[in-house]
Amino acid sequence: MRVGTTLLSILAAAAAMAAVADLPRGGNPSSSTIPTAQAPSTRPHGASAVFRTDRHFGEQVLTYRFEPGVEVRIIAPPAAQFDRSIPTRVVIYALPNGNTTDQTIGKRVTPGVDWHYGIQHIGAQTRRLREVIREENLVTAYVEADGKSWPTWRSKHAQSSQLIAQVVDSIAGRFNGPRTSITLTGHSGGGSFTFGYLNGVDRVSDRIDRIAFLDSNYAYSDEQNHGDKLIAWLKASRRNHLVVIAYDDRNIMLDGKRVVSPTGGTYRRTTDMIARLRKEIALSEKPLLDTLPTGAFPATAPAGHASALAMSRRYRGLDGQIDIILVENPQNKILHTVMVGDMSGFIHAITSGTPHENQAAVFGGPVTYEKWIQQD
């Protein structure tokens, strides 16, 4: 993990998300945003609809362009492992600012390889999840905006919320069936994708049963009814889970100046979310380490982060449907992307509140996906 990418992500996300925070809400495309269509009307004619086999792990890969300005790459399990008799989970992962899809998937960082490839490892974390989760086909769909910034992309398209809903539809439509569920997640500026979706619907689709913000909830707003919609969705089904991971970014410094504005950052937005949820839902609050397996910390924590984890707090509600982790930052370090990759935040976001929580990895604990990192 390197400081440069995190600072760039925070600066870009904090500034750009503020610019789109006041975008007007779009109309509600429908209460069910997962149609049976095989492709969106905006997909260019001739775009491939055939999955190819990747040479690294034998995964099935489909890449297509969704206009205006969205690159979609869907990665499914190898054909021999894709079991049509069991449910399928499609995880839609919106990329952080400044990162490509290849960098987000990740690979081994060797001399000459851009360090961006070694900070998220969503590909390796997904493969580790498949090793543990056997009752679902796990598919990851990476969505990358032109310019490598979802906040900027949204600011350029007045109908961005409707377009985002169509992107979701275009992905989910390739895995039709009553037992297909959708997860919306992303890191840093990728959270703008999820909020863009929320802004465009009156009600979250029944097919979406997990929403996770990986230090990406910069644009959360009570004024835009984000809390109302999330609460209604959580109460609609015990299957629905909200996961938030954030850290104290209020005093991060760069060249003697604070990176986050006096009112911005994910720490403040997360406390806003907690306050809104508590108006209608009881949330417990415990030290993070008290909720994790005994003996995991601090010896096995990533280097230099034991004190942060030891002071961190966890909020849970609705019998585990809500899971919010606030990582404290006594050394004022940049933990933005560390929480996603080094601390296995993606694995935690997908397994929280399920029997697989702490099985594929423990948040903040040792990396368990090393063997699944692409080599070249």
Descriptive account of the structure:
By secondary structure, this protein is of the alpha/beta class. It has one domain (3-24, 69-372): Rossmann fold, CATH 3.40.50. It has 10 helices and 13 strands. It has helices at residues 3-20, 101-105, 122-132, 150-156, 160-172, 191-199, 226-236, 266-278, 306-311, 345-351; strands at residues 52-53, 60-66, 70-76, 88-94, 137-145, 180-187, 208-214, 241-247, 253-254, 257-258, 283-287, 313-317, 322-327. The strands form 2 sheets. An 11-stranded mixed sheet has the order 1-2-3-5-4-6-7-8-13-12-11, with helices on both faces. The protein has a two-stranded antiparallel sheet with strand order 9-10. Strand 12 and strand 13 form a beta hairpin. The longest helix is centred in the N-terminal third of the chain and has 18 residues, at 3-20. The chain is globular and about 50 Å long. The protein starts with a helix and ends in a 25-residue tail after the last helix.
